[in-house]
Amino acid sequence: xxxxxxxxxxxxxxxxxxxxxxxxxxxxxxxxxxxxxxxxxxxxxxxxxxxxxxxxxxxxxxxxxxxxxxxxxxxxxxxxxxxxxxxxxxxxxxxxxxxxxxxxxxxxxxxxxxxxxxxxxxxxxxxxxxxxxxxxxxxxxxxxxxxxxxxxxxxxxxxxxxxxxxxxxxxxxxxxxxxxxxxxxxxxxxxxxxxxxxxxxxxxxxxxxxxxxxxxxxxxxxxxxxxxxxxxxxxxxxxxxxxxxxxxxxxxxxxxxxxxxxxxxxxxxxxxxxxxxxxxxxxxxxxxxxxxxxxxxxxxxxxxxxxxxxxxxxxxxxxxxxxxxxxxxxxxxxxxxxxxxxxxxxxxxxxxxxxxxxxxxxxxxxxxxxxxxxxxxxxxxxxxxxxxxxxxxxxxxxxxxxxxxxxxxx
Length: 410
Description:
Strand content: 15-25%
Radius of gyration: 25 Å
Number of domains: 2
CATH architecture of the largest domain: 3-Layer(aba) Sandwich
Mean pLDDT: 93
Largest sheet: 6 strands, parallel
Helix content: 40-55%
Number of strands: 14
Distance between the termini: 45 Å
Shape: elongated
Order of helices and strands: EHEHHHEHEHEHEHEHEHHEEEEHEHEH
Structural class: alpha/beta
CATH class of the largest domain: Alpha Beta
């Protein structure tokens, strides 16, 4: 059976390069190619165009002629990008195509990747781009898009461009030849982890795998939490062991690992079991010391590595986090519960040996979170307190016991 591919891009300015790619695809194998034009100023007759920019503009809530008359490049790119999201998502739902390719500079990459981000994880997505280095987060988001550097501007077929375009086609056809459908053979549990909770999550993962779960561990660095909640919303995850919620501390304090204000909403919106702990909310993450905001100059810090500086959260900040966590849990449509390690929320937030406290040990700040949480939480939501640090074996055992109870598997 032939594979279905989508090729999307600005056919008004890069038709020659796109023809090169399309011809290569057709020479390589039995591929059905659907082409989508995103060019504002025109199209091409070098190959058949299946969806023109007019359709993208309309899907983005505007009119192509109006965009041309306005002569505002930024607004035009934004409108076509919004339309690309709608058109590509709709096309995938109708045809279930097997892969998508595009190319461009900053504008072209923006439009192409906007549409690609709407697709499920696992669908091969390649964008050949002049900006495939530096900060690519605005283009990738939390998608599994592959960016291939173009090395030069995408301007004609020459000895260099023919190499990177050919390699991109080879990468796509290789992925299609080896593609595997994502199949859930076991119930899937998501767990959130940080360096400061690794011992806990490693123990939990081993216990859950022994009980027949596939466990996906997400690094709580902002993109990790967002990806986890995206997969929850996509229906891929059955329950969440959310023991490392440090991303909310960064969102509140302006750290580098914030996951946005919707963090903690995904499992509740999906109605799946959600066990929450305040793992690593004792810390906010910054880069090297010279990146820390001046207003924090008198705070307590710990140098985790040369590129990561941790700041201890205060009782006031933990109180606010308690309010936020309660608000998110109260809105849940599914089973939600909290489990609290009374002897610290991280490796650094611990008494240590012979009562020698670690850097962030602050029982008052920790209690501030719990008191605020309980004060604002609905009465039907359990709060289990464990006389242990989050990384003590007994805490992992109690967390897994409660998690299994919530998913109905003793």
